[in-house]
Structure formats: structure tokens, C-alpha cells
Amino acid sequence: MFLVSRYVLPHIFRSIARLPELVLVGALAWCFLGGELAEELHLSREMGALIAGVSLSTFPYALDVTAKVTSLRDFEDRDTPDRQEEDAGPKIVEARLPSSPCSSSVSA
Questions:
Q1: Average pLDDT over residues 5-19
Q2: Residue 23 CB partners (closer than 8 Å, separation 6+)
Q3: Please, what sign has the CA dihedral across residues 77, 78, 79, 80?
Q4: Distance CA 50, CA 37 (A)
Q5: pLDDT above 60 for 16
Q6: What integer is the mean pLDDT of 14-36?
Q7: What phi-psi label fits residue 90: left (phi over 0), alpha (psi between -120 and 50 degrees) or beta?
Q8: Were both Cys, which of 19, 23, 31, 79 would link to 52 (CB 3.0–4.6 Å)?
């Protein structure tokens, strides 16, 4: 995995860097591949994905990938079961407008 991330991935990411969506798909594919490779070696998938993510962090596209993955993480975080219980009922929000100094001095 180290040799692939050192010598092969930079060439692949350089060629797909023209399309930002492909950079994200490539990064996710690399992490899934790392997870499956770790599973074949009788390690956890999480450990393989972590190692793949660390190897991606050295690329110049790391900030772009991080920004895109963060938005996916936040989108997925909204639909977790514990958040659904919080959002189950309607929430009443009382809005108050700031008082204007002119509104109290106006006489009819």
C-alpha cells in the first residue's frame, strides 16, 4: 500500500485533478480499497481506511478532499437516529424584533 501511495497515486491524482468531483471519488475509492485490503490481511477495515487517509493527507489535494468530505460527513450526521429523536417534535421559536427608538415616540 505504501508503494502504491508513494509512486502510483500521485500520477493518478494529477490526471484526475482537472475535475474536482473525480478527486473526491478517487479519494473515497482509495480509502475503500485500503479498507478491503486490510480486511484481506485480517485487520479491521477502519484501520485500512485510516492508513489510506493518512497517505492521502500528504497530497496537495488534501484540503480540497477534506472540505468535500466534511460536507458529506455533516450531511450524514443530520440523519443519525439520536438526532431524529431531537428533531421529532415541532419547535416553537419566539422571535423578537429589537425595539426601535423611533417607534416609542410616534404618536397617532
A1: 78
A2: 13, 16, 17, 61, 64, 65, 68
A3: positive
A4: 12
A5: yes
A6: 86
A7: beta
A8: 31
56-107 pLDDT, tens digit per residue, is: 888 887 887 888 778 777 776 665 555 555 555 556 656 565 655 555 555 5
Going by C-alpha positions, the residue among 7, 99, 20 that lies closest to residue 65 is 20
Q: How far apart are CA 14 and CA 5, in angstroms?
A: 13
Entry pTM: 0.58
Question: At 94, which amino acid appears?
Answer: E
Q: What span, in angstroms and rounded, lies between the C-alpha atoms of 105 and 97?
A: 17
Q: Does residue 36 contact residue 48 with C-beta atoms inside 8 Å?
A: yes
Angstrom distance (rounded) from CA 47 to CA 51 = 6
What's the grid cell of residue 102?
Answer: 423611533
For residue 26, the one-letter residue type is G
Residues 28 and 101: their CA atoms lie apart, in Å, by 56
Q: Which has the closest alpha carbon to 13: 2, 24, 3?
A: 24
All three cell numbers of 18, joined, read 482537472
